Amino acid sequence: MRPPILWITVAFGAGLASGLDLFVVRGAWYVVAFVIAAALWLARHAPLGAAMGIMGVAGLLWGGAALRERAATCAGRWTAGESRLTVGAGRWKAGEAGTRAAIVRLSDPAPHSGGPVEADVVAGPCGGALRLRWPDGIPAAGGTTWVVAGWWVGSDERGVLVVRRAKLLDAEPRGRGALRGRLAARSSALFGRRAPIVDALVFAPNAALDPEVRERYARSGLAHILSISGLHVGFLAAWLALMLRKLGLSPRHRPLASGVLLLGYLWLLGFPAPAARATVMLVLDDVARLRQRVAAPRGVIALSALAVLLVDPQALHSVGAWLSVTAIAAVVWAGRATLRHHWSVRALAPAAAATLLTAPITAFAFGTVAPIGVVANLIAIPLGAIVVPGLVISLALSWVVPGLAALLAAGSGLGLALLDLTAQGAAAVPGGHVVMVAGWQAAAVWLAVAAGGWWLWNTPRRRWLIAARVAFLTTVFVATSFRDVVSLDDCRCLTVFFLDVGQGDAAVLRTPNGRWIVIDGGPRIPGSDAGRRVVIPFLRRHGGRRLALVVATHGDADHLGGLPAVVEDFTPELVLEPGEPLGRPLYLEFLAAVEGSGARWHPARTGDRVEVDGVVLEVLSPDSLWMTLPLDVNEHGVVARVTFGGTRLLFQADAGLPVEGHLAGRVGRVELLKVGHHGSLSATSDAWLGELRPREAVISVGAHNHYGHPAPEVLGRLRRWGSEIFRTDQVGTITFTTDGQRAHIDLRHHD
């Protein structure tokens, strides 16, 4: 029998969902009155139905209050356009980007090269939490107080304040940010280059990890390890119980001490919904044990979810919260369903059930499901149970016994290396992860897979019947998944498509393992968006689902124009761009698209290096000093060198003669040059070509453009240096393919 608290929680959640989305609709009060009247009438004969009605109304009211509270925050007011500012000759409309300022306290140290950081508003007419895009070159410790000003982009839920100016008000770290900052410093001293992953595992839910690390764990089905959740709280709770028992605390006092310590840990984390849910479950279980009562697992899960929704109504819209509740419910069910089965089934069942039941959610939100995680978690979770508490104890002891802390850190570091090795091995398994376009269609596919698994599990235990059902599902799977999908390439090559987007730039790179990189998105003019017209259809026709990397070389519309649409349709893992705070609406729209996609954003600087399947993209320009010079936006653009094996390509964007002089002697020979500034006279000097000596030169240019691109002088210089010239206005899309040693150009139309 399902415990009543389960239905009560469902009713509260349904009411809360209505309150968060529909509370402002007139007429809601009539529904409330009707439900209350019906509940009173049913109270004697159907008390559970009456309780559900009352809790539904309570959820509706609670959601409405949460909605009003969110609207009163700085993010809510700025999104609603409460205070409009005149910019240039026009006025920002409600909800569009505008200049804002606030006094904030940072929750974490700001990234050295700029990037996202969480903060809390500490003074002013509005409050709440804010997500900032911190500028490059301004060091900031966690817990310090700043006046920040910049552009507000996005919604109240996913908006970001792009900081242009920041002034330090209080250099003394305070509050949660101060403790996180000290922990980050200790972590760096103890663990060196592994410090970011230690931070992510222990105390920093928003730690900035290398995109390759995140990708490795996502492909191996271990992404949950890097996201502080109920699993981490469970690890710590188990070790706390053991340590408190060894310290001699009585059974009555141990739950109280453990609860207080876990509450402090939740405060340090910022009370994320999955960790809060796990803590409530552990406390309820301890209370039940003390009172010698049997706690129904479904009732404990439901009550913990209800507690989380009461504390944080917005957790209803949190993917992490849904994944957390679904996963723990799957694990509980699997444990009970396989109680009398062989030990191997009992070992695999929880991970398999959690993977299958959470797959529709991850497919809907992220588009990635990793079945290999069923096996990888069998190794990773026991390792995590040792590593995470070891890391916590090491950091705690570093204040008291530094020598012992260093010794424990060495042991934990070994466990961390083994965990990373497990992720590497699982990520390399062919077919171990499936990438789809995130959304309802992907979720429906995995719902069908979960339904198939349920059908198989409930098959009567007759061999011929099980075999028949397996054969049927296999046939359906092969017919719907492998047909027209599996292709056998005879070349593990890097392929670069220079798309014909008219007067602009857009290049798409496909790595040897079929992952995608986009460099610029072509122009956008009234009535024509190259991103929607050319880039997105091209990616879809060639099987593109997600992007490993997007590079926006600079903010001009002929390069940046199509990228907002591309970023919205194909969630990138990492976005590189110069990070120059332009006030142009297109640039602000691009930032909003990046923020909305959840991609990691990084201001490209000299020395940055991204590797995807053996393809290495290196940023040659700009550097931080160069960005301070009063140059045209073209000269602040990203110049990137792409290397695969012994083949090198140079993407010059619109960088001109100043950048060529600045980089002289530091680039070397290349196989192919994407000619700078569409072949304008402002780029491609003799000295530059003398250093690069490109065999092929690609010019992305529109037919009959009124700029005179490409200039005859530039074409003459390229010919004198022996370069074979290819132009998109003459041949359309240009395809360059290399296996790392040999290369060739294909002029057949691929668009």
So how many helices? 27
Low-confidence stretches: 82-97, 482-490
Helix content: 40-55%
Number of strands: 26
Termini separation (Å)?
59 Å
**Largest sheet entry:** 8 strands, mixed
Structural class assignment: alpha/beta
Mean pLDDT: 82
Form type: globular
Q: What topology, given as strand order, has the largest sheet?
A: 17-16-15-12-11-10-25-26
Strand content: 15-25%
> Radius of gyration in whole Å, from Cα?
28 Å
Description of the structure:
- There is one protein chain.
- The protein has 751 residues and is α/β, with parallel strands linked by helices.
- It is built from 27 helices and 26 strands.
- The protein has an eight-stranded mixed beta sheet with strand order 17-16-15-12-11-10-25-26.
- Strand 11 and strand 12 (516-521) form a beta hairpin.
- Helix 11 (273-290) crosses helix 12.
- The longest helix is centred in the middle third of the chain and has 26 residues, at 402-427.
- The radius of gyration is 28 Å and the shape is globular.
- The termini are far apart.
- The model is unreliable at 82-97 and 482-490 (pLDDT under 50).
